[in-house]
Every structure is written in structure tokens, then in C-alpha cells.
Amino acid sequence: MRLFLHSLAILLLAAIGAERVVAQGAIVSAGGPVHRSMGGASTAAPLSALGAMYWNPATISGLEHSELEVGVDLLMTDHVVNSSIGGLGAGSTEAEPGTFPVPNFAWVHQIQDSPLTFGFSVNSIAGFKTNLAPDPTNPVLAPQAAGGLGRVSSEASFLQLSPVLSIALSDRWSIAAGPIITTAQIGLEPFVFDSANGDNTYPSGRATRYHWGGGAQLGVYFIGEQDWHWGASIKTPAWMETFEFFGEDENGLHRSVHASIDLPMILSVGAAFDGIDHWVLALDARFIDYGSADGFGDSAAFDASGRLNGLDWSSVMAAAIGVQRSIGDRLFLRGGYTYNQNPIKEAESFFNVASPLIYEHMLSFGGSLRLDEHVSVSAAYSHYLENSRTGPIYSPALGAVPNSSVTNELSASFISFGILMQH
Question: Which domain holds residue 187?
């Protein structure tokens, strides 16, 4: 226990002492109510099929049963944009993104009297959404003809299909590997990742179809001495095909616009301890390499055509801790906390009006009720504490506009429900 608390203190102090850029970005930190209520900590703590498959596929060998788990997370965000330019005016606009569903599914099958365990999951691994009406009183959302962005609408959803084979090399060691098949749909208005129209306005971009890509994952899981568990995994980048969108030029005629966007590589390590009756403690640390991912890591600068090269996100670290307490054989209560660095710097607030993923602290709690020996139902709630980023407004022609400011303010909540079936 002293070792666990010492490790936790080191990880949290390292994260808090880092440069104050705060969020895990586009990557969703947890999937399903069991995993979410643990704050996303699962690299060495396989409590359910979804959690085991989400960060470290080798942990499916550590599950007690074959399982099927289905969950859905409902994301609700509060996003406000404030901006001003010198003495020309200032305004505030509240987004209306609505409720964003995030489905997750995982199946794990353990072959009797065999070291092999098969798994398959479908996870909404990344995404964002906002919806801001044009606002002539808010400089950054003024009509494009007046130098603003006009209406800002965005929706991105990345879905990953992950078949996995895990092999128990011994009673203590397991390894797992498998491909990651990724499909995504993106919509953005105005579409600034391609050249401007002839009148210096930008078209909207709505995906003509789902776009596909892929990568791979590898995990290792070790059951140590004195009730300790250890795990590590790597997910390669999800290399996506070039996104193509339908747009309109200044005359209302069709034009195609394009963007290159990949999901980043993710490295995870974790520890868990279950040496106290009825308790499980889990700790994860994660590195998310946005800085090397196409689209996310490319520089936030306009070229001569008015095209924005990228978002200039930084690579980040994240830490998560979760605890489970069982009460009898039927009730399980959980709580979790996640701390994230943010890939978005203050100066880049303008470039992320459509993707204001700036949360720092996430608090989670939830529980499961076992209805019988085969079926459990679960629910969880997560809250991202309010945070903000402030930087100058940028113009393709002028760069940073003198005496200008744009602030994104964001808080969010997840409500999760799910069912777990064991056999």
C-alpha cells in the first residue's frame, strides 16, 4: 500500500508540475460505465470487458469469465466563446451542441483449458462537437464578410474496431496483439483546412462518406507478488486516408476540400492492488503523441492560399486513479479521478473554437448491481470541471490581430449506462 501511494504521489506531482496546458484532447478517456466510474484506470485492472479492451488488451486474460458488455455514454457540454477587438466591440456566445452519444461494445471469450482468449471491441475512441450561431456582436463569430468566422459548427467521431488475441504465457504473464480498424466522419464549418474561396470566405465541409484507416495495438499484463498487478500497452497511430468534403465556392458552385487527420500514438502503463478484502485500487499513466499526428500536430499557421496547416497540438501526459469497493456479492461501488495535460496552448485558443477540448480535472463515480450470477447492470457519472483558454484572434492576412482576444470556456458531463453478461 505504501508503494502504491508513493507511486501515485510521484505521478500526480509530475503532472501538476508540468507546463499548465490542460486536457486529454480529442481522445475519450474511458468507455462504458464500469471503466468510466474508475476514471479510465484499467491498464492493470481488468474489471470488465470494455475496460480490459480499452487500454490494455492483454488484461482480458485476467478476467474471471467470458463476457459481453454493452454501454453508452451521453456527453453534454457547456461551451461559451467570448471575444473582443480593441474598442471595436466585445461579445459572448453560448454554444448549443446538444447531447452527443458515445456507444461502446466489447466481447471476450476465454477458451476452456487453453491459454488463448479472444476479444473484440467497438469503441468511440475520439471526437468532439460544438455548434455556435453567427453573432455580429461577438467579433470572432461575426459574418465572414465582416472578418469573423461566422457560424461555427463541428462534429467529429472516430470509431475503432479492435479484434484481439491474448495468450497467457504462464499463470502470471499474458501478452496480446491485434489490428485496430478505424472509421471516422467529420463535419466542419467554416472549413479552414483548405484554401479560401476567391472572396476570402471559407466553404463548409461535410464528409461525403465515412473515411477509414488503421493501426495496431500490443499489450502485456503481469500478476506480481503480494496482490500487485502491472500492465503496459501501445496503440500505434491510426493512419487515416485523406478526408474529402463537399463544399461551395464564392459562386455557390461545387468544390472539393481535403484534410489529412490521423489519431495519435498512445502509450499506457498501469498498476493495481487488490490485497485488501473487497477493495481494488488502480493507477494509470498515459502518453498521447498529438505532436506527431497529422492535422493535430501540424503548425497552426495560414499559408498564402488561406489554408490552415494544422492545430499545433502538443503531446500530453495523463494520470488516472480508480477505486472499487464490493458490498456483498451483488453491489460494487466505484470512484475515479483523471488529470490531463492539454494539447492546446493559450495562444491557440482561436484555432480551437471548433474543438475547445480544454478540460483538466475529471471526477467520476458509479456502481454495478449483479442481478444474478450472469447479468449485471451499471451506471456512472463523470464531470469535467470548467476550464478556459485565452489568446489573440488571428487573420490569414495579418496574423495575430492587435488588441484582440478570444476565450473558450468549457465544462462537460458524461452519463453512462451499460449491461454486462458473463458465462
Answer: 2-422
